[in-house]
Design goal:
With about 190 residues, the protein is α/β, with parallel strands linked by helices. It has a single domain, classed as Rossmann fold (3-Layer(aba) Sandwich). Helix 1 links the parallel strand 1 and strand 2. The protein is globular. The two termini are about 25 Å apart. The model has no long low-confidence stretch (mean pLDDT about 95).
Length: about 190
C-alpha cells in the first residue's frame, strides 16, 4: 500500500488539503496528516483541521509521496520549516514523489526540488523562482517525480492524478466514478 504524508500548516487552504486527503483515502492509500506545530490547524477560511499526528512523530516513518496544500500563509509556514525542506530534498533525491498545489509549489522551489523542471502554481507564486519552467496555464503538471497544480479549482484533478501515479489509472477511474464525476470533466494534465 502506498503511503503519503500531508503536512498541515496554520493558514493552509482547506479545500486543497481535504480534497487530497479524502480522495487518496478513498483510493485505499495510507494518508498521514501531520500538524507542523502539533496543534489543530486553523485553515485559511476558518475551518479547523485536526491532524492525525504532529510532524515530528510523522517523520519517524518513510513515505512514497509528500503533498503540500497551498494557501499563502500555509505555504509560507511550510517553506520556513526546515523539517519540511529536509523531507522534500530526501524524497526528491530518492526519486519519490513530491507534490504541491496553489502557493505551495514555491516551497518545492525553495527546497531546490523544482530546479530545471516544469511546474504550475497559483498565478504569481513562482514568478521569482529561477530555474523553473512555468506552465502557468496548466491545471496539473507532472515532471518526473514532481507534481504541481494551480489552486482550489484544480484540487480534484490534482488528487486524481496523484492516485493514478501511486496506484494506477484504473484506481483513479474507480474513485472518480464513485464520486459521480464523469471522467470527461477531468482537466488536461501536462506531462513533461
Amino acid at each position: 500500500m502506498s503511503s503519503v504524508l500531508v503536512p498541515l500548516a496554520q493558514g493552509c487552504e482547506e479545500l486543497e488539503a481535504v480534497t487530497v486527503i479524502d480522495l487518496l483515502r478513498r483510493a485505499g492509500i495510507d494518508v498521514v496528516t501531520a500538524s507542523l506545530d502539533g496543534e489543530p490547524v486553523q485553515a485559511s477560511r476558518g475551518v479547523t483541521l485536526v491532524a492525525d499526528t504532529a510532524l515530528d512523530e510523522a517523520l519517524d516513518r518513510d513515505y512514497d509521496m509528500v503533498v503540500l496544500p497551498g494557501g499563502a500563509e500555509g505555504a509560507r509556514r511550510l517553506g520556513e520549516d526546515e523539517r519540511v525542506n529536509t523531507l522534500l530534498r530526501k524524497l526528491a533525491d530518492s526519486e519519490r514523489f513530491t507534490a504541491a498545489i496553489c502557493a505551495a509549489p514555491k516551497v518545492l522551489a525553495g527546497a531546490g526540488v523544482l530546479e530545471g523542471r516544469q511546474a504550475t502554481a497559483f498565478p504569481g507564486a513562482l514568478d521569482d523562482s529561477p530555474g523553473v519552467e512555468l506552465r502557468g496555464g496548466e491545471p496539473v503538471v507532472v515532471d518526473g517525480s514532481v507534481v504541481t497544480s494551480r489552486g482550489p479549482g484544480t484540487a480534484m484533478d490534482f488528487a486524481l492524478r496523484l492516485i493514478e501515479l501511486l496506484d494506477g489509472e484504473q484506481k483513479a477511474v474507480e474513485v472518480e466514478q464513485a464520486l459521480q464525476r464523469p471522467a470527461e470533466h477531468r482537466q488536461y494534465v501536462h506531462e513533461a
